Amino acid sequence: MRLATLRDGSPDGRLVVVSPDGGSCAPAPYPTLQSALENWANAAPQLAAVTTFPDALDPEAIIAPLPRAWQWLDGSAYQSHGDLMNAVLGIAKPETDLPLMYQGTSDKFYGPGDDVKFPDEALGIDFEGEFGVIVDAVPMGVKPEQALGHIKLIVQINDWSLRTLAGPEMKTGFGWIQAKPPCSMAAFAITPDELGNDWRNGRVCLTLKVDWNDRQFGAANGEPMGFGFHELVAHAARTRDLVAGTVIGSGTVSNADFREVGSSCIAERRGIEVIDEGAPRTEFMRFGDTVRMVAVDAAGRAPFGMIEQKVVKA
Amino acid sequence: MRLATLRDGSPDGRLVVVSPDGGSCAPAPYPTLQSALENWANAAPQLAAVTTFPDALDPEAIIAPLPRAWQWLDGSAYQSHGDLMNAVLGIAKPETDLPLMYQGTSDKFYGPGDDVKFPDEALGIDFEGEFGVIVDAVPMGVKPEQALGHIKLIVQINDWSLRTLAGPEMKTGFGWIQAKPPCSMAAFAITPDELGNDWRNGRVCLTLKVDWNDRQFGAANGEPMGFGFHELVAHAARTRDLVAGTVIGSGTVSNADFREVGSSCIAERRGIEVIDEGAPRTEFMRFGDTVRMVAVDAAGRAPFGMIEQKVVKA
Do residues A287 and A218 both lie within one domain? Predict the structure, then answer.
């Protein structure tokens, strides 16, 4: 099942069920994705029962499948990304065996085609291609094996980052505020079964193709997460209940053979340059630059649709 | 104007306007505080026009004035608190001239009388008495002097913290997840004019009385913030628009003469013990312990009402 949200002037938009070919849609029996997630046991079979799609799906009308969420927690579950980021930021590897995770702003997710506004190019504008899951209500203290059953939907995310601000904010120990403005979501939120065998061990085993200004920049596979999403959910829920509709991210998709497959963010390439050449060479994004992200399976199918955005001056 | 929210089974509760004596209330012309904040230019005069209060205000029915928010950003604006926390956590003073701020979980704020649940006493259960402001929609890049006008309501907050987890999470640079479960709010959200001259320079110049297990623990005054709330709002909005209903906290209220006035959290007292005696002596909270927090003015009046809670095992 694939779900999308259409622009209707309200903050949460209007939920639709998308046809298997992605070209058409039908009104959902729940007005918004948040309302469906709060009643998922009933909503899931009702949404799945929608099998006729009378309306053409206008790509221009698609906003983020969950345009705002009560909670957004982003992990950093790819070790090869973490190592490179430490290199580029000049930060020691964190002394922890637990997942790394930060709480991000959740009141807005950009839609897949929205222009993304930043105040200043000098802030080090960067994309971060990643996957995310959306859970129903999760009780405090959930175990990873139970957490897997709370993962109701999977999404593809661009976690926009401002690198000039990121290092100094990390050094405060308080995490990121200014360095992490709102993220973007690709067009479709999908149920795990849509991925078939590409959803395994709590991981999205698809290749995330990232193009910067129409040139391929990365094509890392989602499989080698150091922690699966079910483990990230359990980590998040250790001392709190998770509200239905909480979004949990993987962190930047990254593979150990990053020199071959490329990267899902600029900072990672700069980390490689620091290691290989002693200093970063690739600059961050400029106003007018574009980024396109699409996760594809072995057959070339793109279950989440696409993110295709331009950065603009606020 | 003082506003409260009453339990009605819905996540956002039902907004009421509270009488000057705090004993009675009237239904508000907006169903929830969030809905009023999204239309504040219209809502404020309509709420202020309510001058008859036909209903007795049942303290048991009061939940947090904003039971959930789209965004919660908490500063750490009292230098004397920061210095003591660095001492107790063994963390160097952050090298920044900017406000310290973290993004916290906002999908739930406990009400003033709710029991507060934690999984384990060994996590270092601690209270943090502070003040907070609620803004209407704030545009990215707002200046502090403009931000002052976006502060529509003031609240009193208990920022629950799990100290055993806090230090290790800080060292990751990602900020707090497990160490910062949901906060609590005192009974009333008030307009700044309610404080008269005790609201000045973007600071709540009231004494925050904190009792732990019915014994006075602290009575620090809110005035000596290193940054005013307007500066915290501007910091938060540097790279993002702030959604209406964003809550911004002061951090633990603390005064330089903490040995005389006491502290608003246990960790701070432990920091004093580390400095004075070489090691902390005061233990953190146990299940069954209570904390009461009330901000009072020179006349003994308590504009926010009270927080009075018990910690229990989840």
Answer: yes
